Give the backbone structure.
Amino acid sequence: MTERNGREAWPPELTELLRKVDKLRRSGRYTEALSRMRQLTETYPRQARVLLEMGLTLGIWGSAPTEALPWYERVLEMAPGHASAHLHRALALAALGRHAEAVADFDALEAVGFRKALVLHMKRAESLEVLGRHAEAERDWTLALAEDSDNPWLLHQRASARARLGRLEEAVKDITDALAAQEGEPVDAELLRDRGVLRTRLGDTAGARADFEAGLAALREGDPSGLADDLRHRRQEMG
């Protein structure tokens, strides 16, 4: 087998072998998929894609980020600029609570113009929030919204970040926009509760009461446990 850039050229048969592994993973046959991946890593130890797929099998399909991490490291030793390995190492580090290291990987991806900007900004924002770097997290939620401007979940996350920064009126607007973006869908009682809390902090008693009452009316099966009690308690506190 000839080499290119220090790595073996791609064997044509590997495409079909990896496709079979992916089919096993998606059909819930994780143990068999993992066994096949172990065999492939032994047969093709210089194939970055094989090592990456081993990491993905463990990290995503096996929910084992600790075991996945060394495989991403092996890919990056072989190919330091491998974007997918950087991304999944960052995600594994975040899952393990190593958020400062995860942010460093996300920063490295941003520096090279990583094409999945939405994922990068969302995940980096989550790590930044854990680190208490709320201004930077708010920036990343804003950058994520530049990629998906009408996403109610992203608007809710930015509202939470802005609330932590004391930017309450902007946070209220974000939640109002999130509610408007859900037009045609069931009203989100959690969004109404959170907007009511913000309005309470702003001294808008009437607006807060209206949100808590609307939230109670909008409750549906599957809402977070305790949400109904929280809404009732907050409405009662309004007098």
Observations:
- The longest helix spans residues 13-26.
- Residues 8 and 207 are 65 Å apart (CA to CA).
